Amino acid sequence: MMEHDPIEEQAARWLARQDAGPLDAAAKAGFDAWIATSTRHRVTYLRLEAAWQRADQLRATRQAPALPPPRAGLVRAPWRRWAPMVAVAAAVALVAVVPTLDDWDWPFAAGQKFSTGVGDRYTAHLQDGSQIELNTNTRLRASVGQTTREVRLDKGEAFFEVVHDDKHPFVVISGDLRIVDVGTKFSVRREGDRLEVVVAEGAVLVEDMAHPNEVGPTLVTQLNAAVAQPKAIRKSPRSEEQVRDSLGWRHGTLVFTDRPLREVAAEFNRYNRKQLVVPADGPMGDIRIGGSFEATNVDAFARLLHSGFGLKVIDDGREIRISN
Amino acid sequence: MNRSAVDLWFVEEVLPLEAALTGYLRRKWREASEIPDLRQEIYTRVYEAATVAIPEMTKPFLFMTARNLLIDRARRAQVVSIETVIDLEDLDVADTVPNPEQSAVGREAMRLLQAAINRLPPRCREVTLLRKVHGLPQRDVARRMGISESTVEQQVAKGVRLIADAMVDIVPEPGTARFGRRLRKMGPRQVGRP
């Protein structure tokens, strides 16, 4: 009936185990090691996982024999297709994160902290139904309760999909800047006290709380971006493609259009421990790069620099030095 | 397990072609029992190629890879007749035409999926229905059926393989490829000096 295929049997066992609940640290390490053993393991697992997730679509058909209705807590949101994957991500993030309680000044009693390491991503599901996708090397705190919905972005970048609620605006605070959602999907990226907000859908208000008299609240609507610094909020329009490209990280991709190599290298360096080093001076940093790249595959990008531009690439395992 | 763009490409672009790929292998390869292994090998090859650069057009790339593998295998296997090899050289044009409607799951696909679940052995079927159609967690499935959680897990492992195999018979209907256009662009798009 079923072919005897040891790899597929192992893949099915791993899948079934994760279907039961998140793996503990030891099991997760075992799973990661198994996946890393060969591409064959990986593709076999992905295939079974896709089939298993696809079967979730049956839940919409209602043609199953009647059961007493499942408890409310079991009804899953529309993202259920990805739920097992999210569960895996959650397991990863939980193992990696767990800061001690007192290492951040945490003003909210009911708050949750989320963070990701270099090269990781994580989707946080808040109790109000909103979702936050954390990009690489990001830390934020969320406090969602009956009366307030507030997220503090301490560092990094995140994409917010907010379930709108007129009575309880969703507020993202980063340094002295505040972003108030007006029903929306948007990303916020923080570098020091500089903030970039890109609105994919809906609109947000960006405010400088420290200088309310100098800079008024700025409304940023769909397909617009704002770069905010203390005392300065600049708005600029974005094309749909630009917005999509700037959100490529949500799928693990970096997309560049005519960007200088020094900026591209800086982008890659956000996602990888192995750093690209481009000479600070000289024309090399001005080489224009375009294309889509896997954010965590800096090696492939370095190979492209070598093969496409004839640049010298020296990789010592910690750094990739680019030279002529 | 970290998810990469290649994983996403593989799941969204390659796997939906499984029915077409399996059909192709069945037409071109006499030994039906070897098809799952061939398919796994083809997946492995396209995945590894995609880690270097995601191909612009998935379907022709997948079938070219399949064809090359069959030719390799045919040349190595002494029992394969010469006609098989010649036959392999002409790749069906219909198979390679890229179409953006691959990942759709329509009513028909749903019906086949249900049929596949109906064919599962009884206990496996009940576990799968409770888990997937009613959305019960494994623990609750175990409680409801009065069996141990590890038995439920074993049945899930069994069910997922049978369901994956049954998907092969699903012929996709036209619809939307959610990641198609975006991912097809991936890989170096332009390379030039300033």
Describe this structure in words.
The complex is a heterodimer of chains A (324) and B (194). Chain A is α+β, with helices and mostly antiparallel strands and 324 residues long. Chain A has three domains: 72 residues, no CATH class; 147 residues, Jelly Rolls (Sandwich), CATH 2.60.120.1440; 72 residues, Phage tail protein beta-alpha-beta fold, CATH 3.55.50.30. Chain A is 27% helix and 32% strand. Chain A is built from seven helices and 18 strands. In chain A, strands 1, 2, 3, 4, 5, 6, 7, 8, 9, 10, 11, 12 and 13 form a 13-stranded mixed sheet that branches. In chain A, β8 and β9 form a beta hairpin. In chain A, α2 crosses α3. Chain A starts with 5 loop residues before the first helix and ends with a strand. About 15% of the residues of chain A have low confidence. Chain B is mostly helical and 194 residues long. Helices cover 64% and strands 3% of the residues of chain B. Chain B has eleven helices and one strand; from the N terminus they run αααααααααααβ. β16 of chain A pairs antiparallel with β1 of chain B. Chain B: It comes from Nitrospirillum amazonense. Chain B: It holds the Pfam family Sigma70_r4_2. Chain B: Keywords: Sigma factor, Transcription, Transcription regulation. Chain B: Belongs to the sigma-70 factor family. ECF subfamily.
